[in-house]
Amino acid sequence: MDILLIGGLWLDASAWDAVASAMREQGHRPVPVALPGQGDGSTSATLDDQVAAVLTAVDAADRPLVVGHSAACTLAWLAADARPDAVAGVALVGGMPGSDGDLYADFFDVEDGVMPFPGWHAFEGPDSADLDEEAKASFSARAVPVPEGVSRGVVRLTDERRFDVPVTLVCPEFTPGQAKEWLEAGQMPELARTRRLEYVDIDSGHWPMFTRPAELAALLAHVAEGL
């Protein structure tokens, strides 16, 4: 099956290298999506540019599973909204989709038109507990500042058929139980309306593509095979 892999903030497509390698061994066709403004040197890219890149990948694939990580869970959900008949399923790793009218990822300060990686103090605790100092240094060195036009782009959702697309919420630094509590508390309004929502646990921090790539690949392959 075609499995599109969309990295979260500060990540370029190479973040999926180890996961993609393991998926190919399992007979699937992983497609790490290169996002404008995250690895191509552009600082003027917009959220619309990133959505267009994802939809180009969807259109080139055969009913793919679309995987979004962290903030890019919203990009995966936007793909389901724009192509509800072409997307076989959506897997959300360590995040939840924004709602119509939300800003995409206005989480940290913008400097000179970009949102740089804020440093590890912002991710102390479960997010980074499984990253050693060498891994943190490597991440910081490769982190790509996110253009303001992406981070402060406005989410637009228009097709309610997106709620028919099967969704799997992969829970790394939080548990399925916590996610269900957030859902019941109204903190995940888009997921509350999906007609098929499953929860899957993975014992990792926020970036399992680096710390548990084989496990993440096997988990996503299992999701794909169940669609």
From TrEMBL:
Single GO molecular function: hydrolase activity
A Pfam family assignment: Abhydrolase_6
InterPro entries on file: AB_hydrolase_1, AB_hydrolase_fold
Gene3D superfamilies membership: alpha/beta hydrolase
Keyword Electron transport set for record: no
Transmembrane stretches, start-end: none
Key words, A-Z: Hydrolase
Provenance organism: Myceligenerans salitolerans
All copies of domain AB hydrolase-1, residue ranges: 3-218
Protein name as annotated: Alpha/beta hydrolase
